[in-house]
Design goal:
Layout: H1 2-25, E1 34-38, H2 44-52, E2 57-60, H3 63-72, E3 79-82, H4 91-97, E4 100-104, H5 107-116, E5 124-129, H6 146-154, E6 159-165, H7 174-193, E7 200-202, H8 209-214, E8 219-222, H9 224-227, H10 233-239
Helix pairs in contact: 1-2, 4-5
Length: about 240
């Protein structure tokens, strides 16, 4: 465990330095850029080790895998983010167990999350997924449809619309990265002009977080730069035992 923690501590330190350098280069305060450690397929033990290094926000993509980790790590004050595709039959589990949901793209899903959010919990924090590159292979709301969709979500109880999220096309150049991230930033500005004021841009991952921060990212989602190469999903499920017992 000590070796794991040492590696994670070094990785997190290097990543936070990257974030700080990128923020300062853009005239921003590094404290304005939150880090979500994408822990999908990594074990509960790895999450516990990262938590001990000061990382308290984690992102998961698979509901069943995530619920096992939530149970194993319930003694820790972790802020859980769901960042994967959302199936209708998984909305209750997500609404009952997560603080944030990145990637809402259908009103039906938003309505089900709203109905299932327990009243004793704080409102579920929502980011709309935008298909900023217009890729047929990716999910997300078209930029032109985002205003109407945002207004519909903002009317739902037990949800708090916080921002926009995007996974841009894989880009060969930094200039292209800036183009897509800048388009999401501009979309947020357009929404504000229409009365939908948001405070979150969830964009940027291990390979492109500098461009995302330069274009206004307030939350970056990073996995491999923290945890290393991702294990296959089956191996990850087998490894998710309670590290605190």
């Amino acid at each position: 465990m000590a070796t794991i923690e040492n590696n994670l501590q070094a990785n997190l330190l290097a990543l936070r330095q990257r974030i700080a350098v990128a923020a300062h280069a853009g005239g921003r305060d590094p404290a304005d850029v939150a880090l979500v450690a994408v822990s999908k397929t990594f074990s509960a033990a790895a999450i516990a080790a990262a938590y001990s290094c000061g990382q308290h926000a984690f992102g998961e993509n698979y509901v069943q895998e995530a619920l096992a980790k939530l149970t194993a790590l319930q003694a820790l004050r972790i802020e859980w983010h769901f960042i994967g595709p959302i199936q209708s039959n998984k909305t209750r589990a997500i609404a009952e167990n997560f603080a944030w949901v990145h990637g809402v793209e259908r009103l039906k899903i938003a309505e089900r999350l709203s109905a299932a959010r327990p009243p004793h919990l704080a409102p579920l924090q929502i980011c709309i997924e935008v298909n900023i590159g217009g890729e047929r292979s990716k999910s997300g709301v078209a930029p032109a449809d985002t205003m109407a969709f945002a207004r519909a979500i903002a009317r739902l109880p037990r949800l708090q619309l916080r921002g926009l999220m995007a996974i841009p096309p894989a880009c060969e150049s930094v200039e292209q990265q800036h183009l897509h991230f800048g388009a999401l930033r501009e979309l947020k500005t357009q929404l504000a002009a229409g009365g939908i004021v948001l405070d979150t841009l969830s964009m940027g991952m291990s390979a492109d977080l500098e461009a995302a921060i330069a274009e206004g990212a307030t939350l970056v989602r990073v996995g491999t730069a923290i945890f290393g190469a991702r294990p296959d999903h089956a191996s990850a499920r087998a490894a998710n035992v309670n590290p605190l017992e």
